């Protein structure tokens, strides 16, 4: 980036401004009004907030260390999430049997979510809620996740993509990787691709033993190509996490659409 650094904004009204692909490292916010701020796909390592008033704040994301008034709340949050949905603990398997169980649990949970989706009109399945992915886009993104981590890394396929695959919004543009945000496939079309991707995972798990979980793998696609310490188990856990979290988002948005 070539923009000047160290600029000062004092007594200015930047309400409604949009900052996209902007570096704000080591920035200082003092006596600012951040009401209604929406932050998405941000990296907040080392952020410190003091003297803040937080009447209403929501955080969704991966939490490593989050200290609130001197208390690291991450362990409490994780325990509460596991208490609310006991199946969540199964998404952290350590052996082959655990991985097979975790994917079977996801199959069962997603079946219920898809049933809810079928009760809506086809147009609603392409409708976004609060700027998040539509239900169809969510399933398409999970197809991409399977292709990237299972097809491209575990199975070392150099081009595991399907035209309906949808990378994450901030992903780099890569030749040969589909990224069609305007296509409107039917639910059955997307579910057919999803079934094929799930079958690939099933084949991997069927032939897997404990040593196979620890097998080192590298990406055959441009995604994660720089990672040199991946294992089969790590790749499968990424897919489990994607499936688990995006189903929760889907359930939330389907409830809003139905309401």
From TrEMBL:
Q: Which residues form the DinB-like domain?
A: 106-249
InterPro entries attached to this UniProt entry: 5peptide_repeat, DinB-like, DinB/YfiT-like
Family matches, as Gene3D superfamilies: dinb family like domain, E3 ubiquitin-protein ligase SopA
What the entry lists under SUPFAM superfamilies is as follows: DinB/YfiT-like putative metalloenzymes, Pentapeptide repeat-like
Q: In which domain of life is the source organism classified?
A: Bacteria
Name of the featured protein: Pentapeptide repeat-containing protein
Q: What is the lineage of its organism?
A: Bacteria, Bacillati, Actinomycetota, Actinomycetes, Propionibacteriales
């Amino acid at each position: 980036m070539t923009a000047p650094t160290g600029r000062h904004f004092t007594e200015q009204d930047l309400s409604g401004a949009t900052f996209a692909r902007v570096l704000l490292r080591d920035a200082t916010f003092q006596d600012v009004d951040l009401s209604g701020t929406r932050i998405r796909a941000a990296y907040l390592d080392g952020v410190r907030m003091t003297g803040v008033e937080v009447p209403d704040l929501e955080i969704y994301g991966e939490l490593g260390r989050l200290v609130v008034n001197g208390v690291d709340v991450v362990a409490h949050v994780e325990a509460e999430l596991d208490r609310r949905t006991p199946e969540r603990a199964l998404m952290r398997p350590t052996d082959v049997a655990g991985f097979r169980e975790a994917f079977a649990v996801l199959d069962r949970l997603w079946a219920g979510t898809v049933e809810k989706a079928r009760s809506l009109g086809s147009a609603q399945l392409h409708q976004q809620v609060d700027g998040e992915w539509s239900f169809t886009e969510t399933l398409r993104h999970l197809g991409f996740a399977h292709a990237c981590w299972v097809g491209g890394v575990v199975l070392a396929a150099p081009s595991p993509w399907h035209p309906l695959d949808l990378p994450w919004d901030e992903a780099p543009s890569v030749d040969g990787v589909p990224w069609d945000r305007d296509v409107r496939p039917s639910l059955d079309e997307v579910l057919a691709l999803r079934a094929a991707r799930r079958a690939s995972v099933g084949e991997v798990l069927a032939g897997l033993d404990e040593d196979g979980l620890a097998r080192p793998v590298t990406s055959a696609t441009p995604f994660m190509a720089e990672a040199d310490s991946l294992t089969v188990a790590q790749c499968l856990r990424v897919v489990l996490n994607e499936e688990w979290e995006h189903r929760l988002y889907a359930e939330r948005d389907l409830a809003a659409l139905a309401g």
